Amino acid sequence: MELLTRRLAECPPEFLAEPRLGDSAQSQGVHVHAVITDLMDDLGGPPLSPVQAAKFQASGRKALEKRNRLRLALIASWLCHDGYFRAKPVHAPAILVFLSDVLPPLAKLTAADLFITDQDRREELVRALVAHLGLTPRGESPAQAADRLKALSTVERARLVRETQKQEAHARKLREAMKRKAARQAAAKVQRE
Q1: 170: which strand partners?
Q2: For the segment 89-125, what is each residue's pLDDT rounded down to a tens digit?
Q3: What is the spatial distance between Cα 174 and Cα 101, in angstroms, rounded to a whole number?
Q4: How far is it, in rounded angstroms, from Cα 141 to Cα 125?
């Protein structure tokens, strides 16, 4: 864990650069799909299909919405290029799924830069990757690793906030309904008297 979180903290500026947004000749920035293609090649994985490559490109009206996700994919590709993963090609397909499917919910909730600058976010990203690969950090049981990831998880925290807000809204509706019922009962009692 410590080696991977340190690797994130030492992420070179090339992986923090802006991703290419749009298809025009004037568009500048890093071609994220090319970085992921190179990563898969270095990990011994298969080349990206056009559908897979499209997940790492941003064009059209929603290009800006994809910016943070693409920035996080660049940062995570640096993490996944660690020698441990390069020595274990069996992980390449799961790493591609991690980059394309696991990262987007994180990117919707947290600025990509925080996965470099914030210790908890670095640990969250590393733990999310390790868990996705079915690995357990050294010195931890699977239950301890799952608990620690859950405690750090931005996605889990957002889910709990949404759930709490729903419960509070439901409780508020119940209180309002009880007040209306009490008012009706009081009005009915006054009319009977």
Answers
A1: none
A2: 999 999 999 999 999 999 999 999 999 999 999 999 9
A3: 39
A4: 19
8 Å CB contact between 21 and 58: yes
Residue 39 Ramachandran class (φ > 0 left, ψ -120 to 50 alpha, else beta): alpha
Q: Give Cα 184 to chain centroid, integer Å.
A: 50
Q: Tokens 């298969």: give the residue.
A: 46
- The whole-number pLDDT of residue 25 equals 65
Q: pLDDT by residue (tens digit) across 125-167?
A: 999 999 999 999 999 999 999 998 888 888 787 777 778 888 8
* pTM summary value: 0.79
pLDDT per residue over 41-94, tens digit each?
999 999 999 999 999 998 777 777 799 999 999 999 999 999 999 999 999 999
Q: Helix (H) and strand (E) counts for the chain?
A: 11, 0
- Residues 6 or more apart in contact with residue 150 via CB below 8 angstroms: 156
Token code pair at residue 41? 């090649």
In eight-state DSSP terms, residue 20 is P
Q: Return phi, psi of residue 19, to 5°.
A: -75, 160
- The separation between the first and the last C-alpha atoms of the chain, rounded to the nearest angstrom, is 75
**179 token code pair:** 């007040």
